[in-house]
Automatic annotation (TrEMBL):
SUPFAM superfamilies with a match to the protein in the record: Adenine nucleotide alpha hydrolases-like (SSF52402)
Residues annotated as domain tRNA-specific 2-thiouridylase MnmA-like C-terminal: 362-442
Family statement: Belongs to the MnmA/TRMU family.
Protein name, per record: tRNA-5-taurinomethyluridine 2-sulfurtransferase
Enzyme Commission number, as recorded: 2.8.1.14
InterPro entries the record matches: MnmA-like, MnmA-like_C, MnmA-like_central, MnmA-like_central_sf, Rossmann-like_a/b/a_fold, tRNA_2-thiouridylase_MnmA
Gene that encodes it: LOC18589832
Keyword Transit peptide: no
Length: 501
């Protein structure tokens, strides 16, 4: 039986009984005790005094803080709840905690310690977790909220980090943020506190969950876009299950980022001026390329121009690159973009014509589909789609087809606009208006609209002795550079801050 000691430094350790599919991410955990299908009722709730319902259009004082009630509209202020709050030490989760506290809920904060391996001491010493925990404690001490430290390092390594490494070895680009949400924050952690009778689990995500009324409890909870479309994180939450979604509150779903900063100042949070974190949480200050080199290694390969087959240079291993990437190529006369990879022969194909209109992708396949309601949407011809985190959507339609060898269904997605930054392993999230309805993993299978690689380049890629190529060709300046169309800021959001050399 799991035990949490009260106060600031208890540790939870969990059995390593969760597992994931060997090819596609499957965030579903298979523990001996599954998550409840209905929301547990806190045994302590009946001992709390009733709380009056108030209007959200007038300013009021909550726990000695003069607060506009509209800021509490995503906090279920009309109820008195027992809430487990995930606290990272950042501004967003800290404001979420204070809003829930201001709404009168009984809160306990949890800091998840997810990255420590004794034989990786160089990574551990560079990880800023101690500073994060210090800020988290200071925020809790302001309002006398208990803080628990939970160890999920084994689960994080097995269900997120190891998966990421294996996917990169296969030439795919996984999304660690989606996996961390489904498998750790709202997976292993949710399972760990399942017996503690918390009504809900809360975090500082920018998203909104609409739960059914008490007389319609059998209806599904709905994940909706947040008020701040730039910060919106429904993309990272799109692979949750209905059982997970039913237990979540996101207090920041009704707020814009500037309002969150204003509230941090109003609450006089000790971390009110702290900058937002960037990159993958387990890396700390370590560059992603250094992490990959440590765990996968390096293997010299060649870079070929997709249109001509010209030998342009060498690289450290195809796993350092993803479709749409331009940083780290170190080629003159650019910008150059990665357009294809030959995983078997360790060859990276690049082009300066990345934004050429006749080489864009609209059609792609998505597997490992998960629908937040539990079933596919009815109107599959009138959907919107996100293929990366950010405010941009595409109108799309898709067709469900049977997978190979009788495996699970696959969605063949058709975007109504062009996109050339589709990377296998990333997630595609689907929406009906304001509602996120689910997501799946982008597969390698493309149609004939993919970026064409010439026959000469393919032949050179298959050469066993590439030393016969001699020296790289001298790259000539491009005669005409078309206006760069930045549909999604250098493509893949994951590589915006992670892949740099």
């Amino acid at each position: 039986m799991l035990r949490l000691k009260p106060r600031l430094t208890p540790i939870l350790s969990l059995p390593s009984t969760a597992f994931f599919h060997s090819h596609f991410p499957n965030p579903r955990f298979f523990y001996s005790t599954s998550l409840p299908q209905t929301l547990p009722i806190s045994s302590s709730s009946s001992f709390l005094p009733p709380k009056p319902v108030f209007s959200l259009n007038k300013a009021a004082t909550f726990n000695n803080v003069n607060l506009d009630p509209r800021f509490l509209s995503c906090c279920m202020p009309e109820q008195r709840l027992k809430v487990a709050v995930l606290l990272s030490g950042g501004v967003d989760s800290s404001v979420a905690l204070r809003l829930l506290h201001a709404a009168g809920h009984s809160c306990t904060a949890f800091y998840l310690k997810i990255w420590f391996q004794e034989d990786f001491e160089n990574y551990w010493t560079a990880c800023p977790w101690e500073e994060d925990l210090k800020h988290a404690r200071s925020v809790c001490d302001q309002v006398y909220v208990p803080l628990e430290v939970v160890h999920l390092t084994g689960e994080y390594w097995k269900n997120v980090v190891s998966y990421i490494i294996e996917e990169y070895k296969c030439g795919r680009t996984p999304n660690p943020d989606v996996l961390c949400n489904t498998r750790i924050k709202f997976g292993a952690f949710m399972d760990a506190i399942n017996s503690m009778d918390y009504d809900y689990i809360a975090s500082g995500h920018y998203a909104n969950v609409v739960h059914p009324s008490a007389d319609q409890i059998d209806k599904p909870s709905i994940l909706e876009l947040s008020k701040d479309m730039v910060k919106d994180q429904t993309y990272f939450l799109s692979h949750l299950s209905q059982a997970q979604l039913k237990r979540l509150i996101f207090p920041l779903g009704c707020l814009a980022k500037d309002e969150v900063r204003q509230l941090a100042a109003k609450f006089d949070l000790p971390n009110k001026d702290r900058k937002d974190s960037q990159g993958i949480c387990f890396l700390g200050k370590i560059r992603f390329s250094d992490f990959v080199a440590r765990h996968i290694g390096e293997m010299e390969g060649i870079i070929l121009e997709a249109e001509t087959g010209d030998f342009l240079g060498k690289h450290r291993g195809f796993w350092f690159y993803t479709i749409g990437q331009r940083q780290g190529l170190r080629l003159p006369g650019g910008p150059w973009y990665v357009v294809e990879k030959d995983v078997e022969n360790n060859v990276v194909f690049v082009s300066r014509n990345y934004f050429s209109l006749d080489k864009r992708r609209r059609l792609f396949r998505v597997g490992s589909l998960k629908w937040l309601s539990g079933s596919p949407p009815n109107h599959i011809k009138q959907l919107q789609c996100k293929v990366r985190h950010g405010p941009g959507f595409y109108n799309c339609s898709f067709e469900l087809v049977s997978g190979e060898y009788g495996s699970e269904d696959v969605a063949v997605v058709c975007l109504h606009e062009d996109d050339q930054g589709l990377a296998a392993g990333q997630f595609a999230a689907f929406y009906e208006g304001q509602t996120c309805i689910g997501s799946g993993v982008i597969l390698e299978s493309w149609d004939d609209q993919g970026f064409p690689v010439c026959a000469k380049a393919l032949e050179i890629a298959r050469m066993e002795d590439k030393s016969k190529l001699g020296k790289p060709v001298k790259i000539k300046a491009k005669a005409e550079v078309p206006p760069e169309i930045s549909v999604h800021n250098d493509c893949i959001e994951l590589n915006r801050s992670l892949i740099s050399f």
